[in-house]
């Protein structure tokens, strides 16, 4: 489903009558083929990947960050280090090991293919799993901080009022850490949009399946289509800026309203 | 009748404290636990509430074991039928005053009791305010209302007036006295404020270094002469 948002450049989009000069520019652009044609599919694919990864991450991160925030387990730090690993690990390293793990020749990949008829290498589901692992700390860490920011006396009071841990979680803890929930979700969403190394390793560049915006940008640069590359890059830049802007606005609002008990 | 006989080794930051306490509280009594900071008063409250597990011993309330090390009984806070007021109020910031109070009630409780409680605590005009918009005294009254609305077996008050100024502290003490008279709740009040203990307690337990140093009526245990001078200075 390759739709084009802007053919033949800005000159063609203009409602002004074309002058000789603009005619020439338009003609020149046409002769270069699809120089100013931009494929929307990488954007829809990236958006789909980011939404799906964020939803799955939210479901995983809530119990995980709750456990990390409140557990007294002796070896908790091992899990903390594992969750945080993608923060410092080159994405290609994670991608490489996932590529190995998901490969049908290896045990895990072979198992999935044999018993579930599921192949994760160079497929969209594989990309989702890789994204979830890669963006995990970007959601877990804000959630964990959110839980820790809430005075322990709130949860303890709720328990003494006869409320279960689950009821305390959704009626007392979560409503008082909504800023952390939003921040974590936005960061994970944004981080998934900006993925490159992991996607390249595990997904390659299959249009409609694994060719996300960052990969499309890379492909355009490789093909020396700098105008296309610029469009992809500029849109990614704007989206990233808007996302971060919203995170800081939310944080500013929250610091004004911290628990003044 | 509450029977407490517990021991707990605590790491209080400045070294270990061996908490070893044995005492009883009669039904309807207001027992004050008095002592200097770091004596183990708050830990005692937390152990009775089930928020901290003793190393050994037992806690029995009206013949029911809440904690018994040997029999491996340790009821969760949810099963203990208590009301607790913490030093920092611990009101839920996302709920209004009336929502904070009704949160304590189960589905089968009458909601009229919330209105009664708001009226009793003179909070009716503030019922729809979030805790952020309340004064210190109003917050503490809301916390007190929330802790007693279920009519618990025991009311545990951990330094309930320490964050208030002197005038508000006196008013808050009046509320506590009224509640105790009106509802007849067995109450354990932790306080380092001698004057507060003298005003409210029917019996005092003096704790130092994790041990009971003295127990009895306020007039027998507290230095009344010094207190009289203090009261004289205040009045």
* Rg of chain A, nearest Å: 23 Å
Shape of chain A: globular
Which oligomeric form is depicted?
heterodimer
Distance between the termini of chain A: 55 Å
Number of strands of chain B: 11
Mean pLDDT of chain A: 83
Our count of helices of chain A gives: 13
Instruction: Please give the largest β-sheet of chain A.
Output: none
Q: In percent, how much strand structure appears in the residues of chain A?
A: under 5%
State the strand order across the main sheet of chain B. Answer: 7-8-9-3-10-11
Write the layout of secondary structure elements.
The complex is a heterodimer of chains A (261) and B (235).
Chain A: H1 9-13, H2 20-31, H3 41-70, H4 76-88, H5 91-102, H6 107-116, H7 124-149, H8 152-160, H9 165-173, H10 178-193, H11 197-202, H12 213-222, H13 226-256
Helix pairs in contact in A: 3-7, 3-10, 3-12, 4-7, 7-10, 8-9, 10-13, 12-13
Chain B: E1 2-11, E2 16-25, E3 30-34, H1 41-49, E4 56-61, E5 64-68, E6 73-74, E7 82-85, H2 97-103, H3 112-120, H4 136-148, E8 154-158, H5 166-183, E9 186-191, H6 194-200, E10 203-208, E11 211-216, H7 218-221, H8 224-234
Parallel strand pairs in B: 3-9, 3-10, 7-8, 8-9
Antiparallel strand pairs in B: 1-2, 1-4, 4-5, 5-6, 10-11
Helix pairs in contact in B: 2-4, 4-5
Key descriptive features of the protein:
heterodimer; A: 261 residues; mainly alpha; 13 helices; globular; B: 235 residues; alpha/beta; six-stranded mixed beta sheet; five-stranded antiparallel beta sheet; 33% helix; 28% strand
Describe this structure in words.
The complex is a heterodimer of chains A (261) and B (235). Chain A contains 13 helices and no strands. Chain A has 261 residues and is an all-alpha fold. Chain B has 235 residues and is of the alpha/beta class. Chain B is built from eight helices and eleven strands. In chain B, strands 7-8-9-3-10-11 form a six-stranded mixed β-sheet, sandwiched between helices. In chain B, β5 and β6 form a beta hairpin. The mean pLDDT of chain B is 87. Classes of the chains: A mainly alpha (261), B alpha/beta (235).
């Amino acid at each position: 489903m390759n739709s084009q948002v802007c053919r033949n450049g800005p000159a063609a989009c203009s409602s002004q009558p074309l002058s000789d000069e603009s005619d020439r520019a338009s003609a020149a652009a046409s002769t270069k083929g699809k120089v100013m044609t931009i494929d929307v599919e990488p954007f829809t694919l990236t958006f789909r990947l980011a939404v799906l990864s964020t939803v799955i991450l939210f479901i995983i991160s809530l119990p995980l960050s709750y456990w990390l925030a409140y557990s007294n387990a002796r070896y908790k730090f091992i899990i903390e280090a594992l969750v945080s690993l993608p923060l410092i690990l080159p994405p290609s390293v994670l991608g490489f090991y996932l590529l190995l793990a998901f490969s049908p020749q290896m045990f895990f990949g072979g198992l999935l293919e044999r018993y579930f008829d599921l192949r994760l290498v160079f497929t969209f589901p594989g990309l989702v799993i890789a994204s979830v692992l890669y963006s995990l700390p970007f959601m877990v860490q804000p959630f964990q901080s959110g839980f820790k920011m809430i005075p322990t006396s709130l949860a303890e009071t709720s328990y003494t009022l006869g409320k279960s841990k689950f009821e305390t979680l959704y009626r007392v803890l979560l409503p008082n850490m909504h800023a952390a929930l939003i921040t974590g979700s936005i960061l994970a969403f944004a981080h998934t949009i900006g993925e490159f190394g992991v996607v390249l390793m595990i997904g390659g560049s299959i249009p409609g399946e694994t060719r996300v915006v960052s990969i499309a940008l890379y492909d355009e640069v490789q093909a020396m289509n700098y105008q296309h590359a610029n469009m992809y890059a500029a849109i990614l830049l704007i989206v990233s800026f808007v996302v971060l802007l919203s995170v800081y606005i939310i944080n500013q609002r929250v610091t004004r309203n911290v628990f003044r008990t | 009748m509450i029977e407490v006989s517990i021991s707990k080794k605590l790491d209080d930051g400045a070294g270990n404290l061996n908490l070893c306490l044995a005492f009883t509280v009669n039904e309807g009594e207001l027992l004050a636990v008095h002592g200097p900071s770091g004596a183990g008063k708050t830990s005692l409250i937390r152990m009775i509430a089930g928020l901290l597990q003793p190393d050994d011993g037992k806690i029995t309330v009206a013949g029911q074991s809440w904690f018994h090390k040997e029999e491996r009984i340790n009821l969760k806070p949810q099963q203990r039928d208590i009301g607790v007021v913490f030093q920092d109020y611990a009101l839920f910031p996302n709920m209004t005053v009336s929502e904070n109070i009704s949160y304590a009630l189960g589905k089968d409780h009458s909601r009229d009791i919330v209105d009664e409680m708001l009226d009793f605590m003179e909070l009716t005009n503030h019922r729809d305010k979030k805790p952020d918009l309340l004064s210190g005294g109003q917050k503490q009254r809301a916390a007190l209302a929330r802790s007693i609305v279920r009519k618990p077996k025991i009311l545990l008050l951990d330094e309930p007036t320490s964050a208030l100024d002197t005038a508000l502290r006196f008013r808050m003490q009046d509320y506590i006295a009224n509640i105790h008279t009106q509802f007849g709740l067995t109450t354990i009040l932790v306080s380092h404020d001698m004057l507060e203990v003298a005003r409210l307690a029917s019996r005092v337990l003096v704790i130092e270094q994790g041990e009971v140093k003295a127990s009895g009526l306020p007039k027998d245990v507290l230095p009344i002469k010094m207190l009289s001078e203090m009261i004289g200075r205040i009045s």
